Amino acid sequence: MGPIAARKARSVVEQCARVLAIEILAACQALDFLSPLRPGRGARAAYETVRRAVPFMERDRVLAEDHPQGRSADPGRLPARRRRGAGGRLR
Fold first, then answer.
1. Where is 53: in which H helix or E strand?
2. CB 3.0-4.6 Å disulfide test: which of 1, 3, 60, 82 passes with 78?
3. What is the reported pLDDT for 70?
4. How far is CA 78 from CA 53, 84, 87, in A?
């Protein structure tokens, strides 16, 4: 039962990573719509990292299509300096 549970757990983690990547893409799109307002340093650093890989969506579409590029938006894959962009330490 252990190996089966481990495989299922791995699948859950992968699915969660996909959902979080899509959420980050949606958040970047929302930041674009809030212009001229500007996000804080940490959010701006993450936004710039994501936008280098995935451009602004001109038309409505399924965000999962951007997922291979959006995977760089996965919080675990953002460089540490971007995660600490607000000047604080990670906890």
1. helix 41-53
2. 82
3. 47
4. 12, 10, 15
Residues 9, 68 contacting (CB under 8 angstroms): no
Tokens linked to 69: 């590029």
Q: Which domain holds residue 52?
A: 2-82
User: For position 33, what pLDDT does the model report?
Assistant: 93
pTM: 0.67
Identify the sign of the CA torsion 50, 55, 60, 66. negative
Domain membership of residue 39 (yes or no) is yes
In a domain, 91, yes or no: no
Total number of domains in the chain: 1
Report yes or no on 88 lying in a domain: no
